[in-house]
Predict the 3D structure of the following.
Amino acid sequence: MWAYGALGLAAIVIVWELYKLLAPADGVVIGGLRVLPRTTDLAMPHIWDMLARLFEPVTRAEGAAPLWAAVGAGALVTLGIAAVGWLVGLVVGVGLALVMLRWRLAEWGLLPWIILSQTVPLIAFAPIVRSWGSKIQIGGFEWADWMSVALIASYLAFFPIAIGALRGLQSPDVIHTELMRSYGIGWWRTLVKLRVPASVPYLLPALRLGAANAVIGAVVAEVSTGLQGGLGRILIQYAGQASGDPAKAWGPIFGAIVLGLVVAGSIALLGVFLKNYRRVEVNA
């Protein structure tokens, strides 16, 4: 698996550099529309230039930290928010799956709305969530801006978890569920002893996808809400400096990619402990 990932990264690097070498400086234009980007160093820096920039200071100020340190600090902030969003999405997604599993009428009524919820444009939805959240004040509790970002991250995370959990919990054959019923085993014991173990091959890919979605949601929400400290804010800040330092703007992009791989890989470690239940893993 790691070898395939390394080959994929190598292929991206080769395609990037070949396009930069062979394509016109003004990009590929068809019918007056540019369909592929310009190949200038301002638009497409060399891969080695972007990597070298990570080890240079963020600014020219004396004692400035290297770019990778600033990106890493932002990634930790985004990671914490995305983790909260993923946990909320896990609770909501599994809860919805259990409700839809228990009552078929709930599945008919909820599933279309769960699917429809993912058509809402996130970049327009995020400022609304922040505006609503800023008005919440219960006693000494005040809604913090990072909570809005975590809520948006959970909004993206719960969908694959709910669908994957539902498919997994419904995966046992009828003969097995009928056998449990013939033994007089109740719904909850059947859930724990049969349905949950059977759902593991479906649930693990859904959890990985939910974790990656939580990172995407956190970064996009940080951009939309203007939350300080995370990768989203750094991305906007460095993008504004791209005209004079194009390689710098790619630092937070690399940080987001690495962060997504880390969270997905962390969830994949669950498969080590659940290897007896994932002989045939199903892609979500």
Q: What stands out?
A: Strands lie at 28-30, 33-36, 137-138, 141-142.
